[in-house]
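R.M. (postdoc): so does anyone remember the format we settled on? I'll just put the structure tokens first.
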């Protein structure tokens, strides 16, 4: 991960191209810092917004492609080692067919895209549908981050730490909830069979 100070320095030195590249990797904080730099007169705020949207979508497509291409060739040999079978991939495909929009929007706002975006590619979600729901999630998210960065960007280090903590907290809550549901299901099946 790039530090917020390094991102700020790179943006002031090298401009829009670096903003685009950093948004692909570190979308939220790069958008906030890009908007902050725009508030200081270095960037045009509308260009920052356009780059934030396009860069975020480009990153989403890269994750999707990793999942999609991971089903063939050498990467496909790793799936069984992780306990992922063709049957499970087929079930995931059916799940994404029914709930893909919710999953992608959930990933967009909880920073769980590193898991959900490749899974949508592995489940062979149609790329048009994938892009549509990501666009619907990216446009308001990028605007919110842009406003935060423009008006409160001077505190970008604190914002970066808060975003990281919030993401870890949310992932922890999701993990504990999933663990609880799996445990409940396990014990229900076990005691029903007694």
């Amino acid at each position: 991960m790039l530090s917020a100070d390094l991102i700020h320095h790179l943006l002031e030195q090298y401009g829009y191209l670096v903003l685009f590249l950093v948004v692909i990797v570190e979308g939220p904080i790069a958008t906030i810092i890009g908007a902050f730099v725009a508030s200081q007169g270095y960037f045009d705020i509308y260009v920052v917004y356009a780059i934030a949207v396009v860069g975020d979508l480009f990153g989403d497509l890269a994750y999707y492609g990793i999942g999609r291409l991971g089903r063939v060739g050498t990467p496909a040999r790793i799936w069984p080692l992780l306990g992922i079978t063709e049957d499970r991939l087929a079930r995931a495909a059916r799940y994404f067919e029914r709930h893909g929009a919710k999953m992608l929007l959930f990933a967009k706002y909880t920073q769980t895209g590193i898991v959900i975006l490749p899974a949508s590619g592995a489940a062979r979600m149609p790329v048009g549908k994938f892009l549509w729901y990501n666009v619907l999630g990216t446009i308001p998210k990028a605007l919110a981050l842009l406003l935060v960065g423009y008006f409160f960007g001077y505190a970008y280090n604190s914002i970066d730490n808060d975003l990281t903590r919030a993401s870890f907290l949310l992932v922890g809550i999701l993990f504990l909830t999933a663990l609880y549901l799996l445990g409940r299901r396990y014990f229900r099946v076990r005691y029903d069979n007694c």
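R.M.: ...and that's the designed sequence above, right after the tokens. Also worth knowing: The chain has a mean pLDDT of 79. DSSP finds nine helices and no strands in the chain.
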